[in-house]
Amino acid sequence: MITLRKAKERIRTIAGGQETWRSFNADNPFDPGHDGFRSLEGLQEEWLAPGVEFEFRAPRNLEILTYVWSGALILEDPGGRKIALETGECHRATVKNGALHRGWNGSRIDTTRVFRCFVTPDRSLLQTPGEKQRFSLSERRGVLRLLFSRDGRDSSLRLRQDAGVYSSILDPGRHLVHELPPGRGAWLHLVKGRVQLVDQILEAGDGASFVEEPAVSLTAREPSEILLFDLV
To answer: What is the total count of domains within the chain?
Structure first.
């Protein structure tokens, strides 16, 4: 079964120079029925004006995955360590229940666009400062490039959950297929562009869940970018 979540159905908030679109959030009582998909309990797209800060206090143990789509971002872990991220860089941080996770736009003149995802770890954990890595456009063009995984394969960032997070940059007409073994599901998020998914057209900001489907199969109808979460 494939279930769509259109961009306009997401929860939008604007406060202090920060605009956030939430596809789902486990702790949002105003969006019933969209409290996560399997171990992916939060997915939000944010625009941060120059110098704008954000704070997030973890309501439980979490893996926080960050992807900087454009601009510059500074993250500060609970131990006070600062990590600078630029366009195309990803970061994984492990935060424990109650810990404060902070960040801010690292530019004084440009808006930063960032995706933050919250994943439930599948085992007890120690809080860590995390790690970062850059994934170039060229290594993501036309293929599903693994960004995060449980075993860190293919130089991906290691994730404390049986999950794989992929990114792909697609030229018009490019077709992708990602097989899903029995028991696994997927969440697809369209970062930009337009893609055809069976008989549906997805546009920027749209998402779709896949349950008991043999594969995710899509075709780009214009220059596009996707994020794909493969989840147990």
So the answer is: 2
Amino acid identity for residue 91 in this structure = H
In a shared domain, residues 120 and 145: no
Please tell me the predicted confidence (pLDDT) of residue 219. 98
What contacts 142, CB < 8 A, 6 or more positions away? 168, 169, 170, 171, 174
Main-chain dihedrals φ then ψ at residue 205, nearest 5 degrees:
95, -15
pTM more than 0.85 = yes
Average pLDDT, the chain: 93
User: How many helices (H) and strands (E) are present in the chain, helices listed first?
Assistant: 1, 22
Q: How far is CA 22 from each of CA 135, 153, 201, rounded to the nearest angstrom?
A: 24, 29, 20
Structural domain ending residue among the three candidates 132, 157, 192: 132
Q: Is residue 107 domain-resident?
A: yes
pLDDT at 28: 66
Q: Is 51 contained in some domain?
A: yes
